[in-house]
């Protein structure tokens, strides 16, 4: 019964629209703006143990891997702890260097992904402390970890992950603030601002979800394209990668997510009048640089879909289509901009008529290595 589509054409669309509510569920009881505090007692962290951490290593697969990459930006910036992000399937083959002061964190919606489970078991055998960010209560990864931070996305039916990703980002945000406070890297006032930013995300997402017109335009204009390039810089780079993954998964169109600054070292050779380029460029510390990458694409005749602030007239001048984002602090920009790339993939797939919720060859949870 909980699995009903509630009037939406696909589970994926229902789950995209559910995101504001599930983020509220994930933040509930854990953050207090008044006290400027994030409380995550389930992780068993205290000042002494956090001061002693030499590094954090995230291990994850698929969409969860990109959530971990966003987490790295949040934690390094606000907690000043070194963070590595490793594909779970590669972790073991690198002879990973971990110590008793290393914390290895699995990120997994299902809590059953074989590669992530194997990486965590390896980490534990090497003496690391293991934690996880997980959506399914009492899943194997949750049971085997020393501490679990549950996301409250609820059951996710669509194979392409959406609300699991944004609730993972909310969890990453809370973790960054909590670690920053315990590490002594984050003052109370700063913590309060970051908490407030997280708390505002659901309302800003609702604004995003009001207007489907740009996505319908994109679907009509670009569904016949054979390939897409997604570009982003800073904390938008993982969102570019996630956007490309979503498009591949459900529309079967080839797509690459690239760091905007790396474009000149390869992908720029692909740009012609046929190639749609999705650029994530909300106003932030890397805005100017990303905007100039956009101008390079334009100069070579590429077709541009720009995802940036709604009042950004510079984008209007360069892009074929602009998706306007509400103005939010840089810390939470990935939670907002990802909704745009989810909807681009969804509308293109729906226009093409693919099986959005059950795309070919993919499984919701992969329990083989
Ligand atoms: C599969 C799913 C993806 C998911 C990945 C990792 O490939 O199709 O949507 O991101 O597994 O799953 P997990 O449950 O560990 O987050």
UniProtKB/TrEMBL annotation:
Gene name as annotated: glmS
Protein name stated in the entry: Glutamine--fructose-6-phosphate aminotransferase [isomerizing]
Recorded GO MF terms: carbohydrate derivative binding; glutamine-fructose-6-phosphate transaminase (isomerizing) activity
Reactions the enzyme catalyzes: D-fructose 6-phosphate + L-glutamine = D-glucosamine 6-phosphate + L-glutamate
Localization: Cytoplasm
Active site location: 364 (for fru-6p isomerization activity)
Superkingdom as given in the UniProt entry: Bacteria
Assembly behavior: Homodimer.
One record GO biological process: carbohydrate metabolic process
